[in-house]
Design brief:
This protein is mainly α. Helices cover 63% and strands 0% of the residues. The chain is built from seven helices and no strands. Helix 1 packs parallel to helix 7, helix 3 (49-60) packs antiparallel against helix 4 and helix 4 runs antiparallel to helix 5 (89-107).
């Protein structure tokens, strides 16, 4: 499966998912994308102390913070970025995930969850450098794709007894 097919499949899953499934997917994915180890590569001179504190607090409380509180945290983070175009990749991933989650909380737009899914795929790609022509060839990328599918369409997960020997 090439990258564009993966993107299209994920978009279709998000559009077709139930509200409960799409919310569960969003919560698990944003939690995965704001994990503390992604912030470890950040240099001290990239963010002000206030921005770093807001980022840490938002990440720690991502599932309980309100949209308004997350808005304020993001404003503090954006105001405290000290570098022009050279922010650590992990920090960018976290900030992007928080921004998409905020928009989802505020407007309930599924497109924001699609963006979270793509950020999650990119996060794995950053670790394993997937081939765009055979995007799921690495075990890590295949596992992330299956995690997304399982969360968005739990009824489609086949038990071993239901899998056809011809499939």
């Amino acid at each position: 499966m090439d990258y564009s097919e993966v993107e299209a499949e994920i978009l279709g899953l998000i559009v077709a998912a139930s509200e409960r499934d799409v919310r569960a997917f969003g919560e698990e994915t944003v939690t995965r994308l704001v994990r503390p180890e992604l912030l470890q590569g950040a240099a001290e001179d990239e963010l002000t102390d206030d921005a770093r504190a807001a980022l840490t607090t938002a990440c720690a409380n991502v599932l309980t913070i309100s949209a308004a509180e997350l808005h304020d945290a993001l404003a503090a983070i954006y105001d405290g970025i000290l570098v022009e175009d050279d922010l650590d990749a992990g920090v960018l991933t976290v900030i992007s995930a928080l921004a998409h989650w905020h928009s989802y909380l505020e407007q309930n737009r599924r497109g924001e969850l699609y963006e979270l899914a793509i950020r999650s795929i990119e996060d794995v790609d950053h670790e394993v450098s997937a081939d765009l022509g055979d995007f799921l060839a690495t075990p890590q990328m295949a596992a992330e794709y299956e995690r997304i599918r399982r969360l968005l369409d739990p009824g489609a997960v086949q038990s071993p007894a239901r899998i056809s020997p011809l499939s």
